[in-house]
Amino acid sequence: MKPKAVLIGPPGAGKSTIGRRLAQALELELVDTDAEIERTTGRTIPEIFTHDGEPRFREIEESVVREALEATDGIVSLGGGAILSDRTRELLQGHTVIYLEISVAEGLRRTGANNHRPLLAGGDPKVKYQELMRRRRPLYRRSATIRIRTDGRSPARVVGQLVSKLQDK
Ligand SMILES: Nc1ncnc2c1ncn2[C@@H]1O[C@H](COP(=O)(O)OP(=O)(O)O)[C@@H](O)[C@H]1O
Ligand SMILES: O=C(O)C1=C[C@@H](OP(=O)(O)O)[C@@H](O)[C@H](O)C1
Ligand SMILES: [Mg+2]
Question: In which pathway does it act (predicted)?
């Protein structure tokens, strides 16, 4: 099995939201790897970060992503940092990978209202988000086969555009 598409991009880009709505529109299953990590470990992501640290979270994430890519022909939404793994980037080759692009300002607005993302917690969120993008932007770009801007576009509009891009595939 192979997913119809895999969604990547930074926190707040809409991977979970667009993933759910795109899967509905195409009548496919959604696998959100963050939800899958929480389901299989029985713990929340902040708990894993706090008690075991980021490196352990990344190990769990790597194996959950590997399994998700094998186990579904639906839509897979990754966590924002999944592409930091060399092995995950290798596994993504040959897949339809959609990079949901977002500006720093809009990414901060969309993630600002909650503290569910341990990587953005503590310190100045803007500096953290900029730093994160500096490191990751080249990795998102390299892994993507489709890119779509999401600033100022409603989820419905983003999904509409993705449905038509995927039809050409
Ligand atoms: N295109 C969009 N326009 C406006 N708000 C959005 C859009 N996509 C997502 N959001 C909102 O941004 C927040 C983060 O979205 P989420 O799907 O959790 O992002 P991600 O999984 O990429 O971190 C949510 O509150 C969601 O409703
Ligand atoms: O960017 C990151 O490193 C992370 C993003 C989160 O997912 P979202 O991108 O869906 O917020 C989640 O996987 C974890 O908190 C780490
Ligand atoms: Mg998400």
Answer: Metabolic intermediate biosynthesis; chorismate biosynthesis; chorismate from D-erythrose 4-phosphate and phosphoenolpyruvate: step 5/7
Domains of the chain plus CATH, in order, are 5-156 (3.40.50.300)
| Residue the block writes with tokens 């991009």 | 9
DSSP label at residue 79: P
Distance 14 CA to ligand 1 centre (A): 4
CA distance 81 to 33: 11
Please report the ipTM that was assigned to this predicted complex.
0.98
pTM of the model: 0.97
* 133 three-class SS: helix
The pLDDT score that the predictor gives to residue 119 is 79
Are 105 and 20 in contact, with CB atoms under 8 Å apart?
A: no
3-state secondary structure at position 156 = helix
Which of 31, 110, 151 has most ligand 1 atoms within 8 Å of its beta carbon, as the pocket-test mutant? 110
